[in-house]
Amino acid sequence: MESIPTKWLVFFISAIPILEQKAAIPIGLAANLRYTTIFFYSLLGSLLPSPFIILLIDKVFIFLRRFAFFEKIIDKLEKRAFQKGKTVEKYALFGLFILVALPLPGTGVWTGSLVAALLKLNIKDALVVIALGAAVCGLFILLSGVGVLSIID
Fold it and tell me: What is the count of structural domains for the chain?
């Protein structure tokens, strides 16, 4: 069985909640992929779930609430999203950009998409802002990683 090419590993890890670009880019750097390849695949991977989250999360939550096991999990997710959403409500789309662009725990494309869905933001505007935020986040992580590697060398 052949292994998955590292660029696709970067892509898929970027699409995983919590990990996103914050984990995928260092993996690409460790594998000595070209910087443009790392950036491209991590950005596309991180953006992949966004339209599905924005369009379908309400329906998914309604379905999952039928099972007691998921009730508390969904409540926690919604509570966190609404807390993060206060910044978005205050600063509008710029707040969403900041929420996605900052490479901190609890921020990123998944959180931004969930907030956009729960606040019923215009999907086109939200997707553009989320993409811009993800690009800035990816560049920040990539440049930080390259800087750390140059210090180590």
Answer: 1
